[in-house]
Amino acid sequence: MRGRVGFKDEITAINIYNKYPQLMEEQISRLENELKLSWEEQSEDLKELDEKARKVQLILRQRLTNIVFDLVD
């Protein structure tokens, strides 16, 4: 998991998706609109993961990146 932000345990990410599927899909739609790229394109480096885990990882990565950029500004 070198260089990757998120959960090391894929099962944890899947469980989060399963607990909050509507929220996860809303966040994926927002990311697609914000970046004008499909979630698949945004998470190309995570393609070895389960789809649910991949979506959760993508959301975490993008939101943490946004927080860092806000703190740096």
Strand and helix map with partners:
Elements: H1 10-19, H2 21-35, H3 39-42, H4 51-72
Overall description:
The protein has one domain. It is 70% helix and 0% strand. With 73 residues, the protein is an all-alpha fold. The protein is built from 4 helices and no strands. The mean pLDDT is 89. It is globular. The protein has helices at 10-19, 21-35, 39-42, 51-72.
Please compute the radius of gyration using only Cα atoms.
12 Å
Q: Give me the oligomer status.
A: single chain
Task: Give the end-to-end Cα distance, rounded to a whole number of Å.
Answer: 28 Å
Task: Tell me, briefly, the overall form.
Answer: globular
Strand content: under 5%
Largest sheet: none
The number of distinct helices, counting runs of at least 4 residues, comes to 4
Instruction: Output the structural class.
Output: mainly alpha
Would you tell me the overall average pLDDT?
89
User: Which sequence of SSEs, written as H and E, runs from N to C?
Assistant: HHHH
Q: Uncertain spans, ≥5 residues at pLDDT below 50?
A: none
Helix content: 55-70%
How many domains, in number, for the residues? 1
Tell me how many strands there are: 0
